[in-house]
Specification:
The chain is built from ten helices and nine strands.
Length: about 290
């Protein structure tokens, strides 16, 4: 190789070395976070206040809670009709809190569905209770730790619900042995189950712990359903905390919307219900 060629290679090596050094001295930029521009998914909760209709003042306070809190009324309580109409005027979801037989018979409820009823008796009682609650759009069980574990009676109940119209069913889960939601699914009744009771302990701190548990469940699973009662402790916590839900990145939605989300459908809830109702009615034999 000639001296001229060697000189050219030397110059090339120096140039390459300088370029490499410049690259090494460039500032290291942090990798862009891929999720920074994507907002976190909002968790959704629904709330039901049970046992409404017996007390006028606390019933009015429950109906006045902010947002779409569902109001569930005992069928023949003295203030059920007036409070249900008030709730409807406030765009609240109205539910029948349907009395059902519990394992303990020491506290039998008036008009409860019982294990010794015939199918006709159960269906007639259901229809009377539904007629007693104006603007009803859904049902959840009041007590029922005995009845909800019996598939035959739950099948009769779901058939009665499906024949009434576009109603949904919420399993309050008063027993871990319940088959109510399973039978609702089998008979095409839109349904969901309770995740958290807010006020098993009537203490503001305990209610707040349960409310936080509800929010945590929604953030972990996408949705969660809570049930409370018109106790002063519960109403005070909800009145304070519901306006703050946006701070927790949680949205309060109606119960039927929560069912829609859990079912994963993008279509209107009532249209979805109508199709499943027809399928169940045409394909399911009577028990």
């Amino acid at each position: 190789m000639t001296s001229g060629g060697a000189g050219g290679l030397s110059c090339l090596a120096r140039a390459f070395g300088g370029l490499l050094l410049a690259c090494l001295l460039l500032p290291v930029l942090p990798a862009a976070a891929a999720d920074d521009s994507v907002p976190a998914a909002t968790a959704r909760i629904a709330l039901i206040i049970d046992d409404l209709g017996n007390q006028l003042l606390q019933g009015r306070q429950a109906v006045a809670l902010p947002g779409p809190v569902a109001c569930s009324f005992l069928p023949h309580a003295p203030h059920t009709r007036s409070l249900a109409r008030l709730a409807d005027a406030g765009n609240k979801e109205i539910m029948l809190h349907l009395p059902m037989q519990a394992v303990s018979r020491s506290a039998s409820e008036p008009g409860e569905l019982t294990l010794d009823m015939t199918r006709q008796q159960l269906t007639d009682t259901l229809q009377r209770h539904l007629a007693a609650v104006p603007h009803v759009s859904g049902i959840n069980n009041h007590q029922g730790s005995l009845l909800t574990r019996h598939p035959g009676h739950m099948a009769w109940l779901m058939q009665g619900i499906s024949r009434h119209g576009p109603l949904f069913f919420v399993d309050s889960r008063t027993t871990t042995a319940t088959v109510a939601l399973q039978m609702a699914n089998e008979y095409g009744v839109p349904g969901i189950e309770r995740n958290v009771f807010l006020d098993n302990v009537r203490d503001p701190a305990a209610v707040m712990r349960q409310f936080r548990r509800l929010l945590a469940s929604a953030r972990a699973n996408g949705t969660a359903l809570g049930i409370g009662h018109p106790y002063p402790e519960t109403l005070a916590v909800l009145k304070r905390e519901l306006p703050r839900l946006a701070d927790y990145n949680v949205q309060l939605v109606p119960v039927r919307r929560l069912i829609e989300i859990d079912d994963g459908g993008n279509e209107l809830w009532q249209a979805s219900w109508s199709r499943s109702h027809k399928v169940a009615k045409n394909s399911k034999p009577s028990p």
